[in-house]
Amino acid sequence: MRERLTYANVVSTLALFAALGAGSAFAADQLAPRSVGAPELRPGAVTADKIRKHAVTAPKLKAEAVKQGKLAGGAVVTAKIGDGVVTAAKIAAGSITPDKIPSDSIGGDKIDERSLSPVPAADRAAFATTAETAGPEVFAKVGAEGTVFPGDSRGIDSEDVRLGKAFAGIYCITTPFSPKGAQVTPEYAGHNSVTVYVSLGGTENCPAPQVEIQTYNAGSHQKEPFFVAFYR
Question: For the chain, which residues make up each domain, given as ranges?
Fold first, then answer.
């Protein structure tokens, strides 16, 4: 060994190690573009503290790369969502349920009133809210023979009215709902001796759910025209 250990051998060996070290350093700093991908990264190699702030932007994320299971609890807050980013088309059907909506977060100005049906507390006043005017929801002008005048009626037509068979002056009316109230008045025909009565819940002449109306003239059953309105 000592006989072969010369100055030239030592210098050449040191030069070789230096070249190898420099080459390794160069290779680490000068990687070819796209030469390192996901397969070359070990699990957990890229952590949040190793990513430069604002380095990951929306255009750099592929579609559906970020899913709900990959988001930490509380990671997405309102301040991190840009205006107009979340649209109806990006919300999965059934993903927003009542338990996910904070109390009092949706005000009247954010609700399309046309999409709402009558609320339970307002169904009693439906007769005043569903018509163009403050008229009842269902009403009719009925002739002496049970004919309904369409221009003066709503929700009832002639097919919904039949004459009672027991005697004249009985009208059985089928309504679109079970009324809790009704108002009936005779049509003035030049005399004031006509009286009209209404019975809800079905009768012997007009079984439920029909409504019975009886008309009298001078105390006797007679066919007479009348007006009737029904209330929920």
Answer: 138-231
